[in-house]
Amino acid sequence: MTSPRKKFVYAACTFIVVGLAIVVALVETQETALTIAFFAWIMGGAFLLTRIRCPNCDVPIVYQGKLGSISIYAGFARKKCQNCGEDLTEG
Ligand SMILES: [Zn+2]
Question: Which domain does 55 fall in, by range?
């Protein structure tokens, strides 16, 4: 079993590598299609990263806790779930 945090790290690395490839290709060719691909990549990446969830409480591992009544999500993963305290480096 891969831990949720490792999954996140792999997904984030893939996301960055693919993103760099798109940006380099975009700068080189200036293709409109690549501009669309670039935005699709940002939306897709954000979507995929929030799909990785705590195995205990099903909250996305990018959840950073609450600021007042607002739930905070950010592009990095905690070692412990900010909702239930589950260790996300296990498994
Ligand atoms: Zn949790």
Answer: 4-73
Q: Which two structure tokens, joined as six digits, stand for 48?
A: 């995929």
Ligand 1 centre and the CA of 10: distance in Å? 20
The Å distance, Cα 83 to ligand 1 centre, comes to 5
Residue 86 belongs to some domain of the structure:
no
pTM: 0.76
* Cβ < 5 A residues, ion ligand 1: 54, 56-57, 81, 83-84, 86
What is the per-residue pLDDT across 48-90, written as a single tens digit (0 to 9) for each? 888 999 999 999 999 999 999 999 998 888 899 999 999 999 8
